[in-house]
Amino acid sequence: MKEFSFKVPQNIVFGEGSIRKLPELLKESGCTNVLIISGPRLRKMGKVDEVAGYVKESGIGCDMFTDVEGNPSVDTVDKAAAKYREMKADGIVAFGGGSPMDVAKAVVLVAKYGGSITEYEGGDKVPGPVDTIIAIPTTAGTGSEVTTFSVITDHTRNYKLSVFSFDLLPKYAILDPELLTSMPASVAASCGIDAMIHALESYLSRAASPFSDAMAEKALELIGGNIRRFVANREDIEAASAMLTGSMFAGIAFSWARLGNVHAMSHPVSAFFDVPHGVANAILLPVIVEYNELADQGRYAKLYQFISEDHKIPEDFHASMLTEEILRLNKSLGIPAGLAEAGVTEDKIPEMAADAMKSGNILVNPRQSTLKDIEMLYHKAM
């Protein structure tokens, strides 16, 4: 067994109605003035105002920034950071999907240490601790409430940059399944598949360890057993709970094991064509799983068991059956059949492939990949 290490240094609270514990956690945090970062849909629904009410209940000052888009940009980070500095905030409540959390991590970084988020791209560039983040996910997808990454789109390069540091981990995560009940079916599907892919890729990663495997397997059990019923009925609290905790476990898994070609290739798709991250991942997944069959070391059968409807491994199982099952799952959830259906055009494939090769995830994909391989996979996914 190779060497590995891990830590889970966060405070995670799960339960129906657990958002009501926000005032208590804010007091524990020592914050005096916080910025709520969220998106326009949640603001329009009145959900952000509810969060603001809990903040005020704690006696702490607050303001809100709700202009976070689906693939948040450097410009959005700059605007949110300007507001953070202006109000002299000392903490953030990140409320929503992965996008507000990515922005929150970037804001506390640039607000404390200055410059642009582009200057911190990569790993080991964060100088030290940042202000408190309390993350409250309203989707079961990114697991960003427990990850060490901030992913921001730089439109000047049509590139999704990643910043990595354990200093960016939110101090608290509140997992309240009741917050998932108003998700549209399409969002539930794309986010749910994204969470499943986090677990699947970390499970197959060449950087996997017994710890990341444990997190990934539990995530796959929870997500594979509940994604269909959750997309069918988002008010199913039991299914929502399983998806939310599964997403969290998957986030912990890939924080330590990284991911693979799916994520390396999906980031350029989102950067060039603004395709939702989960949708891009879901379309690419069966193509990459088929490509990686050659490197399978017996884990495809276990993945099939987690993902299939009957959760059984057929006696005649062969690796290609996992790809077939993923295609069936995508179709049942309404995922587009190819990248062209999502608005992607082939003329950008050389540029997207070049950007994908810059990702560290390529290095831990179970099957080694060259630039020509990535271009071929993009064409196949069209």
Question: How would you portray this structure in words?
Answer:
This protein has 382 residues and is an alpha/beta fold. The protein folds into 2 domains: 11-179, Rossmann fold; 184-381, Dehydroquinate synthase-like - alpha domain (Dehydroquinate synthase-like, alpha domain). Helices cover 49% and strands 12% of the residues. It has helices at 22-29, 40-44, 47-57, 74-86, 98-113, 185-204, 210-224, 227-232, 237-257, 261-273, 277-291, 299-307, 320-332, 349-356, 361-364, 371-381; strands at 11-14, 33-37, 61-65, 91-96, 122-123, 132-137, 149-154, 159-164, 172-175. The strands form 2 sheets. The protein has a 6-stranded parallel sheet, sandwiched between helices. A 3-stranded mixed sheet has the order 5-8-7. Helix 12 (299-307) packs parallel to helix 13. The protein is globular, with a radius of gyration of 20 Å. The N and C termini lie far apart (39 Å). Pfam families: ADH_Fe_C, Fe-ADH.
